[in-house]
């Protein structure tokens, strides 16, 4: 019974009602330009569905914060930090700050933020305006990638729609960040708004990531924003603990919303196209800086922030990357580490030199030419780099590689003295062409 | 004791006894060479002169090695080389500096005390103070002072800020250049010597060019930082044909400045 028999009919998965999408969105493997499956909601459709946006100034903001605490909303960019706590630390810094809706999903595999901005832009913009009113910010920013033109079109059109409807709202700027993995990193966004480069920086106090003498900045991921929008428009009682996931197949990607009782297996059966009709051998969960999990261990785990954490995983940016039974997990991991090492901001030694060395050793391992001394060096480097960068970039790469060495341990034993596991060479996870 | 740690112990023992043999062997060879040199020049009136020249050439070769190792230490690709290890590179650089100093002192002492050399203590330390070939000797004297400056600043590394000592340390380049000229102008009496200066000079030049033209991590960060985020307006995304202010994607004028 190792075959994926009849795929579950695509539709309602789990016992919850939909927050965003009643059907999955389908995208190509690369880029976010030709989205199919979900129609864009313009301002009129949005207002018909949700009604007018309530004011979030003063008492409205307090109510929103209480609702966000009641539903225990955490950041969906991958960090899963409590949203209300983040807002309160900005409110302590005083009024006149900037609120950023971060839609530059750096994860090349993930597309959930692009799908949200292309189909539900007003949910995000309502939340952005509400956030500005609540924390007393005077400026809003929509932060997206340079190459994400379909997304840029959708959000600028949405802003035009709002202006044409005569909405009295604080200004929202659309800023395009360079196309690279770390462009969505929070400290890099703040550094850019302060007139600096779009590169991460050391932050001594995570509750005050902005520089003294500059505007306080609040950065929330786009999915987090859309959820805030739903809470603001419908109240906390109607909120459902769903998750947006991107499931990667060999030919396409599916972005879908799943309830907290949907297992990884159900999502894989519904949204993944197996190249050989078999279940995957393992699943990459969270992102390219997430963790590999063996199929037998992860298949019954629910796609839910808490359930994932209980299973020792993190839902991260919502990436579900099944590895076909015929593929080689070590080759795939070495490829991803090489990509992540190439995407380093080149600012911290552990990342520039350490991650590059780890990547070379991982390549040696996948090619079956890693000696025993090389194995020891790999373990040593991985221990030395961990937790030492300004941002969490090297940590993510190491987490993924560490999980690969555990999950694919039989393969590690096999990849020796020039032997590999003879898997056909094909790339499972999509990477941008420009990656070194 | 596990089998693996026993292997390691035997390996460590082998390395240690190898080292002892190496040191003993090199001591024997050195003594033999010194004996050979002494017996060759003993009773020779030219002995101090020959010794001074030999010390000078040795000092020059050590200085070349010192600078080559310095270039290796600061090369942008240093992290890609696994052997010799970083610790070995630094130790070698430091050891070479010590030996360079020792042979330079020998070179100076021998020639300053040689009554026939026409250099004297005055000429050894004061520019243009030598009666023998004043200009080449002066180049050597200034080379010595700049070399000392480079050495002293490096010795203080770790105690004073890198931005203070590192720029001063680069005076080592001037030191080598002056010493090279000192050698070329005052130290060539056979064609073999000329080729020595040419070959060593070219070696340093090649490595220096590679070190200063290879892009470093800092260059890469500058390149990454140079790609700025840009602000867009609806006109960038939905160009209106025929309008003068139509901005096209990627066009500089359309790009708003971010930050204040």
UniProtKB/TrEMBL annotation, chain A:
Keywords: 4Fe-4S, Flavoprotein, FMN, Iron, Iron-sulfur, Metal-binding. Its cofactor is FMN; [4Fe-4S] cluster. One of its GO terms (molecular function) is NADH dehydrogenase activity. Transmembrane segments: none annotated. Residues 334-415 form the NADH-ubiquinone oxidoreductase 51kDa subunit iron-sulphur binding domain. InterPro entries: ComplexI_51kDa_subunit, Nuo51_FMN-bd, Nuo51_FMN-bd_sf, Nuop51_4Fe4S-bd, Nuop51_4Fe4S-bd_sf. Coiled coil: none annotated. Belongs to the complex I 51 kDa subunit family. This is Unannotated protein. It comes from freshwater metagenome.
Automatic annotation (TrEMBL), chain B:
The chain crosses the membrane at residues 20-42, 54-73, 94-113, 133-156, 168-188, 194-212. Keywords: Membrane, Transmembrane, Transmembrane helix. This is Unannotated protein.
């Amino acid at each position: 019974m190792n075959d994926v028999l009849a795929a579950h009919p695509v539709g309602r998965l789990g016992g919850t009602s939909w927050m965003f999408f009643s059907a999955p969105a389908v995208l190509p493997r690369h880029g976010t330009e030709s989205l199919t499956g979900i129609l864009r909601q313009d301002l009129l459709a949005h207002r018909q569905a949700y009604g007018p946006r309530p004011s979030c100034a003063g008492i409205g903001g307090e109510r929103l914060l209480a609702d966000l605490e009641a539903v225990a909303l955490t950041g969906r960019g991958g960090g899963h930090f409590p949203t209300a706590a983040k807002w309160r630390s900005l409110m302590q810094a005083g009024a006149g700050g900037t609120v950023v809706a971060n839609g530059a999903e750096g994860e090349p595999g993930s597309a959930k933020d692009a799908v949200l901005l292309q189909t539900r832009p007003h949910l995000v913009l309502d939340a952005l305006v509400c956030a500005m009113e609540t924390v007393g910010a005077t400026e809003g920013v929509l932060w997206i990638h340079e190459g994400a033109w379909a997304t840029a079109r959708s959000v600028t059109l949405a802003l035009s729609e709002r202006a044409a409807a005569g909405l009295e709202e604080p200004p929202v700027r659309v800023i395009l960040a360079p196309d690279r993995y770390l462009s969505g990193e929070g400290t890099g966004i703040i550094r850019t708004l302060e007139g600096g480069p779009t590169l991460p920086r050391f932050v001594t106090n995570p509750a005050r990531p902005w520089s003294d003498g500059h505007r306080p900045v609040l950065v929330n991921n786009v999915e987090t924003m859309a959820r805030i929008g739903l809470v603001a428009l419908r109240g906390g009682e109607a909120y459902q603990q769903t998750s947006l996931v991107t499931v990667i197949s060999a030919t396409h990607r599916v972005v879908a919303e799943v309830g907290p009782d949907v297992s990884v297996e159900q999502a894989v059966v519904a949204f993944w196209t197996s190249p050989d009709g078999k279940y995957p051998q393992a699943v990459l969960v969270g992102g390219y800086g997430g963790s590999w999990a063996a199929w037998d261990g992860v298949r019954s785990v629910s796609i839910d922030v808490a359930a994932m954490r209980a299973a020792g995983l993190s839902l991260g940016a919502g990436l579900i990357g099944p590895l076909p039974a015929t593929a080689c997990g070590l080759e795939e991991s070495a490829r991803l580490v090489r990509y992540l090492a190439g995407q380093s901001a080149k600012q911290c030694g552990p990342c520039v030199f350490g991650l590059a060395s780890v990547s070379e050793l991982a390549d040696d391992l996948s090619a079956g030419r890693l000696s025993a001394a090389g194995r020891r060096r790999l373990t040593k480097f991985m221990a030395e780099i961990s937790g030492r960068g300004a941002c969490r970039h090297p940590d993510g790469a190491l987490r993924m590689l560490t999980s690969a060495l555990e999950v694919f341990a039989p393969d590690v034993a096999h990849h020796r003295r020039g032997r590999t596991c003879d898997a056909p060479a094909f790339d499972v996870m999509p990477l941008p062409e420009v990656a070194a | 004791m596990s089998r693996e740690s026993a292997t390691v112990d035997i390996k460590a023992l082998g390395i240690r006894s190898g080292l002892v043999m190496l040191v003993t062997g090199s001591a024997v060879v050195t003594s033999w060479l010194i004996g050979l040199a002494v017996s060759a020049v003993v009773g020779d009136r030219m002995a101090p002169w020959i010794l001074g020249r030999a010390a000078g050439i040795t000092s020059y070769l050590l200085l070349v090695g010192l600078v080559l190792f310095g270039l290796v230490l600061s090369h942008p690709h240093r992290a890609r080389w696994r052997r010799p290890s970083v610790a070995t590179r630094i130790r070698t650089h430091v050891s070479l500096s010590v030996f360079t100093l020792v042979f330079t002192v020998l070179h100076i002492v021998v020639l300053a005390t040689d009554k026939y050399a026409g250099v004297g203590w005055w000429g050894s330390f004061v520019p243009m103070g030598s009666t023998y070939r004043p200009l080449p000797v002066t180049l050597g004297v200034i080379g010595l002072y700049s070399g000392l400056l480079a050495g002293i600043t490096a010795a203080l590394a770790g105690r004073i800020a890198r931005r203070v000592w590192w720029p001063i340390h680069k005076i080592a380049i001037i030191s080598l250049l002056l010493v090279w000229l000192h050698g070329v102008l005052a130290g060539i009496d056979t064609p073999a010597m000329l080729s020595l200066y040419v070959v060593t000079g070219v070696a340093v030049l090649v490595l220096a060019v590679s070190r200063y033209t290879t892009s470093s991590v800092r260059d890469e960060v500058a390149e990454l930082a140079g790609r700025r985020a840009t602000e867009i307006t609806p006109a960038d995304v939905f160009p209106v044909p025929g309008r003068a202010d139509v901005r096209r994607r990627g066009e500089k004028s359309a790009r708003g400045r971010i930050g204040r």
